[in-house]
Amino acid sequence: MKMKAYLMFRDRDFDIDTPPAFGRELLNKDLELGILFNTMAQNDQVIMQAVQSSLFTGLATKSEIEYRQAILKDCIKNPDAVRKLYALTGETLEKQRKGWWWFSKNQYLSSLFPNAVNSLTMLSDMLRQTRDIADREITSFKSEGFVTLFSMLQRELDDAYLDEIKTHLNELKFRDGTLISARLGNYNQGIDYVLRKREKKGFWRRWRFAPSFTIAPRDDSGAADLGKRRDRAINEAANVLAQSAEHVVSFFNMLRNELAFYIGCLNLYDELQRIDTPVCFPVPVSENRRERTIIGLYDISLALNKNTPIVGSDLKMKDKSLYIITGANQGGKSTFLRSIGQSQLMMQCGMFVAAESFSSHITNGVFSHFKKEEDASLKSGKLDEELARMSNIADHLKAGSLMLFNESFSSTNEREGSEIGRQITNALLDSDIEVFSVSHLFDFSYSYYTRNLSYVAFLQAERRSDGYRTFRI
């Protein structure tokens, strides 16, 4: 029996220890994701690791995104059942961790074996509780992932199977002693030691008058020798027990890691509902084109930080590769740029997004280049640092990536900064990379505006005639 959770992928396990992709630290800082992760994790390190791994390792197809979305919708409809299942996995692993000392190689098999039996007895009880949850809740879940998981638990862990396990484990407690067999080798030494099962019928009649001997109470050497012979007989059974326990623990560990992502999403969903901010499940565009149709998109980190609803922005564009965002300071440009990056990452890990409605194409990674403070060590100027960082990013960009610029290359004069920004942007566009650029460089923006290019969209921070900033783009 090989049990799998398959709650993150339809056909493979979720690797919570996936090495961080390039740009993870930059995105975390530029998009202000720290408060998002803290809200999701709520001091649970497993959830923190799961949500970070998921967000920075995006899904590549519409089918994968929709598979995970359906599971998350089930979680939102049945939060108590999902939280109970997650708590059960944590309880199981904690009990196993506390009892794991029995697996130490420094212990004798004779002392390890009873603890191994007790450990597997505990694990089988927890499997029964997990199956009981599946029995109670399977009709409430509709997603392919949960139906597959619960059906597997019902099929593989039926009462007959669990009762049989319990019977075998009770027999291995050897309450009436250990029955082993062996034969004599070429030099009359004992070989081929085998642990034997006691037959329920005829056992005592068969062995009552068999030759026997009793070790004297003070015969330490005899007792040690007998213990070694017993260890040889139970060695294979001990290995089977250890492998079985390892398999069950592996299943609970995998189930916990995969559920952790959804528990994090539930924590975030509850918090956004509390502050009355909208969320929606995005519609990924499967066709090979660029399209963004967005209503009420807002910066989720800002909403969580201020603990209040945030003004959202709308966008409806097709076949655009370059978005240039201009306008007065403090008008919401950087906030909008962060919301674009956040929503793209959230959509591509199967989450809901911070908007009233959201539809977008799937990108081949998200990268950010935001204006930074000057190097405190004075080893380089701001422009040198910006160019070095851009060079690093360029080494990892691929066709179909999303690049976010926030006042980049503005540390030098207008003419030089515009020229640098223009050359880098043109190179990215030639490499089929989508670009969002917040810029105060007039020459940079105007050079694209005058050419009337069909793939360029100009966005502006809204400002009313009386000077009031609406913080909408």
Concise summary:
The chain is α/β, with parallel strands linked by helices. It has helices at 24-30, 34-41, 45-55, 62-77, 79-98, 109-137, 144-156, 159-171, 203-207, 220-274, 300-306, 333-347, 382-394, 414-430, 442-449, and strands at residues 180-184, 190-195, 283-285, 291-297, 313-318, 322-326, 357-361, 366-370, 402-406, 434-438, 456-460. It is 50% helix and 12% strand.
Write a structural description.
This protein has 473 residues and is an alpha/beta fold. The protein is 50% helix and 12% strand. The strands form 3 sheets. Strands 8-9-10-6-11 form a 5-stranded parallel beta sheet, with helices on both faces. Strands 3-7-4-5 form a 4-stranded mixed beta sheet. The protein has a two-stranded antiparallel ribbon with strand order 1-2. Strand 9, helix 14 and strand 10 form a beta-alpha-beta unit. It is elongated and about 110 Å long.
